[in-house]
Amino acid sequence: MTARLPNRKSPMLNEHTKTDGLPDAPDLVMPQALDRARPRNERMASDKVECNACPVLCQIGRGRTGACDRYANEEGVLVRVDPVVLLQKTLDAEALLVPFTVRGEGDEAALVPASSVFVTGIGASTTYPDYKPAPFIVASEAAGVDMVTVVTEGIFSYCSLKVKIDTDRWLGPEQANVRCKGEVVGHVTTAEYGSQMLSLGGVHHLTGGSKKEGRVTLEVMQTLGNKKPLELTIDGGAQLQIQAGQAPIVNGVLEQRMRVGCGSATVGIFARQFAGVADEVIVVDDHITGVLTEHQAGRCLDMKPAGIKVRGRKSTPGRYFQVANPGTGWGGTDIADPLSIIETCEADAAWPGLRLLMVSTTGEHAAWYVLDDALVPQPQPMPEAVAQVVARIGENCEPSLTTVLFLGGAGGSLRAGVSENPVLLTQAIKKSVVNVTLGGAPGYVWPGGGITVMVDVMRMPDNSFGTVPTPAIVAPLEFTMPLAEYQRLGGHMDQVRSLADTLAHGAWHNDGAPRARRMLAPAPGNGWPIGQPPQLG
Ligand code: SF4
User: Fold this and answer.
1) Which residues, in sequence order, are CB contacts of 320 under 8 Å at separation 6+?
2) Three-state DSSP class for 157?
3) Which atom of ligand 1 has the smallest separation from the CA of 54?
4) Which of 186, 357, 396, 485 shows a CA-CA span of 20 to 30 A to 293?
5) 339 pLDDT above the threshold of 50
6) 242 phi, psi to nearest 5 deg
């Protein structure tokens, strides 16, 4: 049932105690206070140690890791196999791993100026079973004010990813299931301006379906949260390859441009440039197709009505909805031939020789026509002056990206690791007294009840997310506030340690179990987490 622990210093530990979620876990015992040195359960073999850092309560054999690969039994001692991540203001590149020392064995804090170091929740360990103070409660100073940062890993059952995919292409119907390895892991939600949104994960998929659905959902969230690539399919829609911070691949095609605007906006932005080189311009868009001479922009430029009528439902002058079906063709429609959206060229308005540009909202598709004597558009080579305007559309498109936001509920039991009166923490966050960060990245706390916090995973250090097989996501969390406020909200004052002491010895409960810390430079643009204004709505 368990596997050998080859070498604790190796980051490649991948064999672990087999645990398949709480309902069938064979070795469940009552939660106990963590004792790193010896087993506490009479039913447990003497060479095992119990980990109680999450509800799974792995009983880990000597030389093996727990079900999450984060804890191991090393010579009868429960150890954490991955380092605590700290941010260091002045660091240019990742430094070597540095061990914490056992209390009383010397002080290496002098190696690093304490004011430039921030302890993150990555690798910090949890407060489970909840009543325990957070593992790191670190005092520091900012602008002459005594501050404290409460640092923990949160075990998130209530969490999801909101994924923004910059594309005009139709990915699937709203509310369609999103699948990974055949399991439903989320759904398509609204289309936004130049982007399609997906909602992935969430407690329903983690706990409300089959075990496999929960496991795959967890894998999806961890993979995307840790900025790694993933394949997804959408029922009745596209096949996707996505990765945070990278261009999406839709049906095998690398997306390059995010559209400059909808069809109507594209007409408006480039109207002056169009007016000099064409008699009519139709910007094809699945949502709002723009027709220049009908559009207010064309009218204000005194353009002569061209009499070219497009299909679809007219919204306002020069703006048409539903000119075609959604798809992966021109402007997010299903068309390959742009003339298919033209209903008529009216004899009382159009004229032979009329110059017509049809273009998509990214400029990736463009065609040039001249009306013949029968008022039928005939394809012609595009003049250089027209091609330059089309190129200008492309130039104004931003690169397509996939953006992944993690959304988690921190308003539950982990608050007990911060305060003996948890509602005061929630209230203090709402009053902007407490700054909430995840791995040092600024969190946006949603208005309303609870501590529903959202963060861009690209602003977090790599591999910030872990999992436990309950199933739940493990994510870092830091609460920074003035020390006086921490005292006021019922904080665990006995566990406050100076930064120097923390750097020297690790967590407040460190009893000599070996740990290591990894120093990273803060992500550009994040600002320093201590002394930053809270990111509140
Ligand atoms: S799955 Fe939970 S109990 Fe098991 S080793 Fe990981 S944190 Fe500890």
Assistant:
1) 263, 288, 289, 290, 291, 310, 311, 312, 313, 314
2) coil
3) 2
4) 396
5) yes
6) -130, 155
